[in-house]
Prior knowledge:
mainly alpha, three-stranded antiparallel sheet, Uracil/uridine/allantoin_perm, NCS1
Amino acid sequence: MSSSTDTIPPTFDIELANIASSSSARPALFDSEDREPLLPRPTIPPQSALLDLEEPCLSDLAFAWIFSLLPLRLQEQFIAIMARFRGSKASRLLDKLQTESEPGLTNAQLMLTNLDLKPVEPERRQWGPWNFVGFWIADSFNINTWMIAASMISGGGLAWWHAWLCVWIGYFIAAMFICLTGRIGAVYHISFPVVARSSFGIWGSLWPVFNRAAMACIWYGVQAYIGGQCVTLMIRAIWPSFNDIPNGIEGSGTTTRDFVGFFLFSLGSLPAIWFPVHKIRHLFTAKAYFVPVAGIAFFIWAVVRAKGIGPIVRQPAEASGSRLAWGWISGIMSSIANFATLIVNDPDFSRFAAKPRDALWSQLFTIPSGFAVTSFIGIIVSSSSMVIYGTAIWNPLDLLSQFLLDNANSGERFGVFVIAAAFVLAQLGTNIAANSVSAGTDLTALFPRFINIRRGGYICALVGFCMCPWNLLSSSNNFTTYLSAYSVFLSSIAGVLICDYYFVRKGYLVLKDLYSARKDGPYYYFHGWSWRGYAAYISGISINIVGFVDAIGTNGPMPMGAVYLYRFNFFTGFIVSSGVYYLLSRVKPLPATSGVWLEKPDEADRQFSVVYTDAEGYDEERSGGTDVVYGKDDGAPEKSAVYVNKADGDR
C-alpha cells in the first residue's frame, strides 16, 4: 500500500478534505466554525501536487462525487465512523485479507496489479514445448470433446467420417487462434486481463474480463457436473444398488444419485485449485499418460461389442442435401466454440513459456491431432451404440451406464470403474486448465487487492456448484446451443485483442503503462475506457444477436438470413469486431503504436517494477502530445518506428 509522510495525509483524508473545501457549504470536517475539528486538520498539498502523487482512480472519483452530494450531517457521521473503523478488528482483518503486492504503489495501481498479475519472472517460466504437448494431449481427452464429436452424428445426421473431418478442420482453425493469442503471453509474459488493457483501456478491460470470468464459472459447473456423473459410475460399478437410491429432489432437473456424484467431484477438485499455475503442469503430465490408455480401452470394448468396426463405418449419413451441408458447418463451428474460452485465455498459460517458440509449434500441431484422436474414439463409440442398441448414444457415460445395466459381470464392472476413474481425472484437468485458472486470473484482475488466482479459483468453484449445470446437458441440442452462445461474446473479444496486437500495434506494448492509470498513459484513453474497443466489441455481438435469440428458443419468426449468419457465429463475431477496430484505429490513430513489427519484451526479462519513481516520468513528446516518431535504436525520428500519443484527443 502507498505510504504517507507527516506532511502528506492518506489519500482518503485528502479527498475528503478537498471535497469539503470545494463545497459551497461548510466544510464537512468540522461540526461548526468555532469547535474543534472531528479529525485533525490535514496539511493539504496543492491540487497539482496531488495529481503527481496519485494516479486518478475511477472508484475514488466516483466516491468523491457521491460524497459531495450527501448532507453535511451525513458527511460528518461517515467521517467519524471511518475514523473508528481504522483501528478496529474489522480493519485489521481487512488488512490481513489483502493480497501481496509491490510496496510503494498508488491506490489506483493497487486496483490494477498484484503478484499474480505482474509479468512472470524468468525463474517461474518453466513451461517448455513438451509441457504444452502434454497439456493439450491431456486436455483433449475429456468428455466434452467426446460429446461434441458424437453429437455431430446424433444431432447433425452426419456419417462418422463427415464428423471426423469437421473435427480436423475446426480444431486446426482453433489452434491458429490459440497461437495468435498465446504469443502475446509468451512474449510479454502477461495474462489475458493485462493484455486486454491495451485494446479496451485500463478500466474498460474490466468488462471483458468479467464477461469471461462469468462464463468460465458457468462452464466450470458444467464440467464439474459431468465429472460428477463419472463419480456416480464409479460408485455404481462397486455398488450396483446405488443406481436405485430414492430421488429426494424431484422436479429439480437432477436426481439425488447424480447430485451426490456432483458434490463428491466438486469437493475432490478443491485441493487441485490450491497449486500455483506453473506447478500444475505435473497434473497434465499424469493425465496425458493415464487417460488416453483408458479411452483406447473403451474404444476397443465398444468395437468388440459391435462385432467389429465394419458395421460401424458402413452406416450412412442420416442427413442429405442442405441439412447435410449445414451439419458440416455446425460440426466445424462446434469444434471452434469448444475452444472459445481457451482462445481468449491462452496467455494465462503461455506466459509461463521459457521462450515464445515453445508455445507455437507445440500448440499448433498438438491441438488438432490430439482432439482428432479423442473425437475419433467418441465418434466410433457413439456409432457403435447404433449397432448395439439401435440408437445413437452421444454421451459416453450413458453408454457405460448401459453396459452396467446389461447384467455386467465383475470384470466388466471393473472395466467401467477404471474408465470412469480416467474420465474423472480428465474432467479435473480440463476444469482446472480451461475454467478455474482462467476465472481465477480474471477475478484477480477485477479485485487484485483482495483476490489472487488461488482465491479466484475457489470462488469459481463455489459459483459453479451453486448454478444448475444439469439443465445445459439435458440434450445434445441444449449443449451445442450453449457452446454457440459462448462464442458470440468471446469471439468479439478475441477479434479486438488480435487486431490490436498484430495489425494496429504490430507487437509493440509499453509494458509498464499497462499497470498505470495515469491520464497521460497510452492506454488510459477516455477516462480509462477505449471507445474503439467497445464499438468493435458491440458490433461483433450485434451481428449475431438476432440468430442468438432464435437459437435460445424465443417465440416469433426470425429473419432466416440472420439465422444462417448466426451459424457462423465465431467467424462473424471475430471478423466484424476486428474489422471495425482496425478501421476506427485508422480513422483516429492510437497512441504507442509501431510502424513496423516491434516486440519489446526486455522489460519483463529484468527485475520488473510498476512503481514510478520521482526520476521517472513521461518525456516531453509523450506528455506534450506531439507526433514525434521514435527510431528503434538511437531515438532519431524515422517513419518505421513507434508512434507516441497521436490520439491525445481521447483524453
